[in-house]
Amino acid sequence: MSFMGKKESSPISPLKKRRASWSELWVNHHHLLSSSPLDLASKFHPPIAKSKTLLPDSSKTDLTLLLPDLTLLSIIERVPKSHRKNLSLVCKRWQRLHGRLVRSVRVSDWNFLASGRLISRFPNLDNVDLVSGCLISPPNSGGCPNLRRLVVTNTSELGLLNVAEACSRLQELELHKCCDSVLLGIGAFENLQILRLVGNVDGLFNSLVSDIGLMILAQGCKRLVKLELFGCQGGFDGVKEIAECCQMLEELTVCDHKMESGWLGGLRYCENLKTLKLVSCKKIDEDPGLGECLSSCCPALERLHLEKCQLRDKNTVKALFKMCEAAREIVIQDCWGLDNDVFSLAMAFGRVKLLYLEGCSLLTTSGLESVILHWHELEHLKVVSCKNIKDSEISPLLSALFSDLVELQWRPDTRSHLCSSLTGAGIGKKGGKFFKKT
């Protein structure tokens, strides 16, 4: 007797599934159209678990990345300079933006400057204070083409030639511990307009800049506009050469000079000089020469500035004032020996519009009045810290002159000015309430 067992059920193949009818497809289609977008999103895109990578912690996110460079740069620019270095340590981007704000640096190695690494970090750099020995290593091809100002200590002729090659647009140069041989390379600077030479500095270094150096300077820098000579030697020949060759020179400063007698006579050839400034000159000129020779000097001069100079020699002061008789602005600050007799020589100035006196302790009110009453074009008067000029000695004529001035700064006696400012403050009353008698 045979019998058949129960047939085992086999899985249904996908090909054998019953196809949905057209009616079912139509119903499913309308069901999808009636569903909301959120339901559809949850149906086809199930929610994903939150992760730290997709939703980062806001406390660890750099929100400054949302700001463009110009906006962030304007923010950093408003931060005090003393704190900007700390901002440059935040990240590479902030360091790069901080470098765009730096205009002046102080370095001690010319190789680092010439390599281009300094300029790549500070692209807007225009002022470098280089404290270095001799600059003898040749610069790389990149150089510093945008550099405008450079301060160098103890360089050489070859060093200046290298600087001129690397910094083709340099306009202002300051040389410390300078001598005649160094100036042999000064002519390589084609665009140099401002030059400051520091030769001899008492107690620091002793370098010689003589007539030879001044002549080399005159032949090499014919486009100079401003020249400053500190502790330089020389004389009439060197100053005359500068006056004749540097026709564009407008401002000359001579500080603590070691010039030979008669050097002032060389200034008579400066036809376009507008400003003459003498600072810390123990002797302006021991023998300035005849006044007739200096009477036609500096026809374009507008400003005469005397600061911390010895004015005891009347012949020298007379020659100087006669030479600068066309000046419109006179500044005498902390000069020794300026008494009434010496100041009376200032009547040689006939077109003064501004007079500034400070620290002239020997000058009196009558001495000031006797001169400025002859200046009919005077508009600005400033008198500061001249203790012998008293308010009580002002005459009616001087008072009338004050009323016609455009600007008046009158603080001759600092002690009386201090007392008037402390009126009502209770200061200076022998202890006040703390030491009252019981």
Note the main attributes of this structure.
alpha/beta; two-stranded parallel sheet; 16 helices
Ranges where pLDDT stays below 50 over 5 or more residues in a row are: 5-9, 48-55, 131-142, 418-422, 430-435
What does the average pLDDT come to?
Answer: 77
Q: What fraction of the residues are assigned to beta strands by DSSP? A: 15-25%
The biggest beta sheet, please?
13 strands, parallel
**Structural class based on helices, strands and sheet pairing:** alpha/beta
Distance between the termini: 147 Å
Summarize the structure.
29% of the residues lie in helices and 15% in strands. With 438 residues, it is of the alpha/beta class.
Please characterize this protein's 3D structure:
The protein is globular and about 75 Å long. With 438 residues, it is of the alpha/beta class. The longest helix is centred in the first third of the chain and has 13 residues, at 22-34. Helix 9 (211-220) packs parallel to helix 10 (236-245). Strand 5 (194-198), helix 9 and strand 6 form a beta-alpha-beta unit. The protein has 16 helices and 15 strands. Helices cover 29% and strands 15% of the residues.
SSE layout:
Blueprint: H1 22-34, H2 37-44, H3 69-77, H4 81-87, H5 92-99, E1 104-107, H6 110-114, H7 117-121, E2 127-130, E3 149-153, H8 157-166, E4 172-176, E5 194-198, H9 211-220, E6 226-230, E7 233-234, H10 236-245, E8 251-255, E9 258-259, E10 275-279, H11 291-294, E11 303-307, H12 314-323, E12 329-333, H13 340-343, E13 354-358, H14 365-372, E14 380-384, H15 396-404, E15 407-411, H16 414-421
Helix pairs in contact: 9-10
